[in-house]
Design brief:
The protein has 507 residues and is of the alpha+beta class. It contains 22 helices and 13 strands. The strands form 4 sheets. A 5-stranded mixed sheet has the order 1-2-9-6-3. It has a 4-stranded antiparallel sheet with strand order 4-5-13-10. A hairpin with a 2-residue loop joins β4 and β5. The radius of gyration is 23 Å and the shape is globular. 44% of the residues are buried.
Length: 507
């Protein structure tokens, strides 16, 4: 196959290593971002990994449409990824394939419909308020940190976001409050951090590297401390989830007319899942629905910390349009879907641009399960195909000359983008791009993120609560680089979100 990129067309590529040394040396997704904007191609770029293993990078909307929609079940999650993640998550909607995936997604979809998600906005807002009020009180009491001056107190805010989103997915997803905001050291929270919070550690990265040369089924048998620790913690979380599900079953049997808003209850009421499969779904909710939103909010705060005028404008909009919350209570806060979705265009523009520019998951890999084709090119069974938001979301062909710039205004209808594509549809939905497939943060088609509406609303509530209450800046601007990223399950800012934060009174 000749898809445009030969092993010698990028400096550093080798005859035996292909582009593998480049891919390992550079940050995840960045070589693909460079190639998509510099290598002439017809929608596909062929490159080689270590050992000259062939890879295909998708670059055009038509190519992504074929792989993600038209022929989606020809392109499955690779076997090694299913084994590695399946050890922790089981076979939930994230890992199921073929008819099993169709069955699971069909029966979970009612819980993720907009009319159901809008009922959860109050949960998103109340937990965001609880977090912000607690941080506010700690700052005023001098407990938030010792590095304080007239510009505020230095706080590592990433930890707060992680605890808040864990509580949100607990209540909205499972009907269970982890209470991580108030107490980050409960047994369940510690188990969770062991399984899902250490993906960027040196031990985790070593296991990921070994996975490139050793079958995952063998890696899990290695007598490594992290293997045993993760296995024990995952078993504990699954045991707690199993009890929660059985308790819900009993409550539903005793009171069939009881109305439950959480996603797990809706799935349980469908009658389509066994207890063990529901355990798999809860593990999937925790993995996919927690750190992704916390990470997106982290990037948003870092971008706003560098742009004081944008931050001030956003704060003014939030304070003018959204209800404030008293510092001594988080109950009965009158947040509605209509209010959040329709009255704060700048908030949604910032959120949309953060999700484009800092997609929490930089790339997704697929493996052909049959001999197939893409754009008429034959692709044999077993070929690795890469879908890379960190490349496509930056395509100058699809987003215009300013694709590499962080510009929330591209999502505002009043903004003249300078890119003639995207006409005929609101920039609030397209950002001015020519196609839905120009933005791959949530993917598209049958394997798209089932929780997209949930995640967007949660993200907007979190960001509004923090920006509405605090003024903030980078704590150490001299020793910090927004391009320094640590990749694991998600792509996090290295060093976390270390901000100098000041309470802005009056809201």
């Amino acid at each position: 196959m000749a898809f445009g990129l030969s092993p010698a067309s990028d400096s550093g590529a080798g005859l035996l290593t292909g582009h593998g040394t480049i891919l390992i040396k550079e940050k995840t997704g960045l070589p693909a971002r460079r190639w998509i904007n510099t290598v002439p191609n017809d929608g596909l770029i062929r490159y080689m990994h270590l050992g000259n293993k062939e890879r295909i990078l998708l670059t055009s909307p038509k190519a992504h449409s074929e792989v993600l929609v038209t022929k989606s079940y020809d392109f499955q999650k690779p076997a090694d990824a299913r084994v590695t993640l399946g050890r922790l998550l089981g076979v939930g909607v994230l890992l199921a394939e073929g008819e099993e995936h169709k069955h699971q997604r069909k029966n979970l979809m009612p819980a993720f419909k907009y009319h159901h998600i809008r009922d959860l906005y109050s949960v998103f807002w109340e937990k965001s308020a609880q977090m912000v009020n607690l941080v506010t009180q700690e700052i005023k009491d001098g407990k938030a940190g010792t590095d304080t001056n007239d510009k505020g107190t230095v706080i590592q805010f990433e930890n707060w976001l992680s605890r808040c989103t864990l509580d949100i997915i607990g209540i909205a997803g499972m009907g269970f409050d982890f209470n991580a905001i108030n107490n980050p050291d409960t047994e369940l929270n510690n188990h969770y951090r062991t399984v899902f919070g250490g993906q960027s550690s040196s031990a985790a990265r070593m296991l990921m590297f070994l996975g490139m040369i050793i079958p995952p089924r063998l890696i899990r048998l290695l007598p490594l401390e992290r293997n045993n620790t993760i296995s024990d913690a995952a078993k504990s979380i699954r045991s707690i989830s199993r009890k929660l599900i059985k308790d819900k079953q009993a409550a539903l049997a005793a009171n069939p007319d009881q109305q439950n808003k959480d996603i797990l209850s809706v799935a349980l009421e469908s009658g389509a899942f066994t207890v063990e499969n529901l355990v798999d779904q809860t593990m999937t909710f925790l993995a996919a629905g927690h750190e992704t939103t916390a990470t997106a909010t982290s990037w948003a705060l870092l971008e706003l910390a560098q742009r004081p005028k944008l931050q001030a404008d956003l704060r003014a909009e939030i304070r003018a349009q959204l209800p404030s919350f008293a510092p001594d209570t988080t109950s009965n806060i009158p947040m509605t879907a209509d209010l959040l979705d329709k009255s704060v265009p700048l908030l949604h523009a910032v959120c949309s641009e953060v999700l484009r520019y800092h997609a929490p998951v930089p790339m997704t890999r697929r493996e052909t399960s049959v001999d197939t084709s893409i754009l008429g090119h034959p692709v044999p069974k077993g070929t690795n195909v890469f879908i890379v938001p960190w490349a496509v979301n930056f395509s100058t062909e699809q987003w215009g000359a300013d694709a590499l710039e962080f510009k929330p205004e591209r999502w505002l209808d009043s903004h003249s983008h300078g890119h003639e594509q995207g006409q005929g549809q609101s920039k609030a939905h397209s950002g001015g791009a020519e196609s839905n497939f120009s933005n791959l943060t949530f993917l598209h088609g049958p394997r798209s993120c089932i929780g997209m509406s949930f995640a967007k609303a949660e993200f907007a509530c979190l960001l509004a609560a923090v920006v509405g209450r605090f003024e903030f800046q980078i704590a150490d601007p001299e020793g910090w680089d927004i391009g320094d990223v640590v990749t694991g399950i998600v792509a996090r800012p290295r060093g976390g979100v270390k901000l100098r934060m000041k309470v802005v009174e009056g809201w």
